[in-house]
Amino acid sequence: MELRQLEYFVAVAEEQNFTRAAGRVHISQSGVSAQIRQLERELGAELFDRSARTATLTVAGKAALEHARAALAAAGAISQAVGEVTDLIRGRLTVGMVIGCTVTPLFDALAAFHRAHPGVDISLLEDNSDRLVVGVRDGTVDLALIGTATATPDGLDSLTIISERLVAAVPATHPLANQRRVTLRDLCAYPIVCMPAGTGLRTVFDQACTAQSLQPVIALQASAADAIADLATRGLAIAILSHSMAARYRDRLTALTIDDVETPALLVLIWKSTNSPALRELLVYSRQAFTAPDPRKGRSH
Fold it and tell me: Of 63, 111, 205, 247, which is most buried by a Cβ count within 10 Å?
């Protein structure tokens, strides 16, 4: 008994005609008839009543039909499962990361995925968050870690990794250093150093200033938190950072809570719903990495 014989049997049963069934399975009518006869010999019973122009199932044929369909469905499921594994082994993934971001759990996820699936080519690119969102939407980027003020960009799936308020960071000699808490208006009296437009921190800061019709002087921009902290330490400008980022520089900068900026800066993994086995598998490793202890270590956004 062969799968093709079961396929022809189901086709004839559903079409109730050998000629139409032959057209459906793309072989000759005589070929279908011969294979059905062979199947009947193996089963020891006729499956069709051929006395009329319409091919109708016999009692034996009716008994066999659902089992034949189930066998074909099982064979299809096996083929799909193997196909997915093959796609995974031979896949290619492009992972995006917001400029200046050093998030070790993402690197851990990529390393663990690569060890498990060395046949998948992984490329990593840096860009600003806005362009990474566009890349995920148009399919040129499979998965991206972005900074944003919105947890889920429209039309995409997401996983929020970090949600933190902004702080201002100043050296001990700065006039605001003893206040501990400040407002945006207080900050706008001084030059600012922050991340470039398109990053989550900058988006939150710009939106908060716009809401109050404030126009801060962005004197300096840097993509890395270390550079922002170094510039602030030298008294060139007030640094705008997240709470945990500023904590890394507590030995030389004082973090000031910004009272009127309550919207958090978010670090978010985004992707487009997909049937890609490789991406689904990478998401499993990513979730595991980001739920492990100390997921905030070594990050900036």
Answer: 205
Residue 92 confidence (pLDDT): 84
Q: Which of 129, 173, 164, 150 is nearest to 258 (CA)?
A: 164
Assess whether pLDDT exceeds 50 at residue 299: no
Q: Are 101 and 145 in contact (CB under 8 A)?
A: yes
Tally Cβ neighbours within 10 Å of residue 147. 27
Alpha helices in 180-292 (DSSP H): 184-187, 200-211, 225-233, 243-247, 277-290
Q: How confident is the model at residue 297 (pLDDT cuts 50, 70, 90)?
A: very low
- Please report the pLDDT score of residue 300 as a whole number: 45
Angle between helices 277-290 and 59-89 (to 10 degrees): 60
The closest alpha carbon to 185, from 238, 114, 127, belongs to 238
Domains and CATH numbers, the chain: 3-88 (1.10.10.10), 91-159+268-290 (3.40.190.10), 166-263 (3.40.190.10)
pLDDT at 275 over 90: no
Instruction: Calculate helix-pair angle for 29-43, 3-15, nearest 10 degrees.
Output: 110
